[in-house]
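debug: dumping io for the single-chain case to check the tokenizer round-trip. Nothing else runs in this session.
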Amino acid sequence: MKAYILISALICAIGIIADDVSVEVKKIPAVNLLKNPQFMVEKNNRAPKDWLFSDYSKLTGFEYQTGNGVFHIQTTGGLYGYLVQPGIPVEEGKKYYAEAWVKLNSRALLWLITTQYDDKLSPFFSPKSGTRIFSVANPDHGENLVRELQYFISPDYLLPVSETKWNHCALEFTVPAGHGIKSYDFRIGSYGGSAGWIEIKNPYFGPAVFQAVVTLGGAGLTELKVCTSGGGEVKSFSLDPKRKQQKINITLESRLFQYYMEITNQSGLTIRRSL
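debug: decoded output
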């Protein structure tokens, strides 16, 4: 009974600050370095403008087309072929982020590679390569299997995917310095797998850093902390408890990490909000 009363009291206390605080977040990513990420097509072309399709296997068995901002690949299975945009400019020592959204029933790969230098490291095992970076979307990795294997296999290679909803395929890396690397090729497409299809939309490649503008409403607020999903504190901001609305500009170094905010008031009560 005492435990029930204590829990109820805590819920009520948290509710007081939650009801009194409004949080609005606007995320401003860096510019997309890819040309034509909307997959617009010129007349009589199947591949989007500024993109090409590379049949890496050099075998028959691929069909592809573009429509309504989606690139569709049909494969007879066991084939490797990618939608490619070559020569995306980068700066050495800088962190970059890449993503695409996929819907599929065959295996897909998001693959970044530079032809100017090979660090000879593996894209799959630590220390990971910074010149060949992979993110695999495998239809065999359903959500139940991912939960079972998450403690044994890196979650980077356990992306649960579906043919009925759009799935996020993303990676982040730092360009190795001192080797004359000036560009990477962006590739997204079929990575072996069974016979089937892959649909791709909204590709992005650009700096990993991004801006978040947080607008807080409510009096008595004293502190805003930004933390990673693992609980590590990233940034801390002092707030003016006398102001009813405050705007904080936050620079975050990664688009791959998950962030959340802890907002504290004068009574020491704290609420959490995703960022």
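debug: round-trip ok. Confidence is low (pLDDT under 50) at residues 1-16.
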